[in-house]
Design goal:
alpha+beta; four-stranded antiparallel sheet; 4 helices; 11 strands
Length: 185
């Protein structure tokens, strides 16, 4: 009986091992109106093909309940205070371009200024699952978290654009040190 149970696990293990790398996309909380504006994750390979749902699996968690992961049912989106756990196909050291976007139809219902009622795009984050600078173990990628946050102009008014970066935004560095500083034991 035990051998019958182990057979499906052995057959599925190559599938799960190819999705072994986890990358967390964290969107910190902002003001109430901006928190409700969703942004959708888009993943492209280096040829420009959209591989969002073929090269990744994803789950999400709200930061007030970080251990309660829920699998996405339809699309990979983020709201303020959410983290998207991407399990990327990194079996051959693939490279991906990760970005987020918000279509205009998803912004029009919120009490936002008129200049923000347009399509929102983002910067592009290039994730190389094989490149590790100054690492002894070349098969291990230490990058675990990237941050998504809305951009603002010099007067701190929001602009219709998302930033995606491996560095935490400056307003978050002192507010949420559990996500931006190493854990001390």
């Amino acid at each position: 009986m035990r051998k019958i149970f182990l057979l499906p696990l052995l057959l599925l293990s190559p599938i799960f091992s190819s999705f072994a790398n986890e990358l967390i996309i964290y969107r910190p909380q902002n003001s109430d109106n901006i928190n409700l504006v969703r942004c959708w994750v888009k993943i492209e390979d280096m040829d420009g093909n959209d591989v969002t749902y073929t090269a990744a699996r994803a789950a999400y968690a709200y930061m007030d309940r970080p251990k309660e992961l829920q699998w996405y049912q339809r699309s990979f989106f983020l709201e303020g205070g959410m983290a998207c756990h991407l399990y990327l196909n990194t079996s051959k050291g693939e490279k991906y371009r990760i970005s987020v976007y918000t279509p205009k139809k998803h912004v029009e219902d919120f009490p936002l200024p008129e200049n923000l009622r347009t399509d929102w795009d983002s910067t592009v984050f290039e994730y190389d699952s094989s490149k590790i600078e100054n690492s002894v173990d070349r098969d291990y990628n230490p990058l675990k978290v990237v941050f998504v946050y809305p951009s603002a102009d010099e007067n701190w008014f929001y602009t219709p654009h998302w930033n995606i970066d491996y560095k935490a935004p400056t307003y978050l560095r002192n507010r949420d040190p559990q996500f931006t500083k190493p854990k001390r034991e």
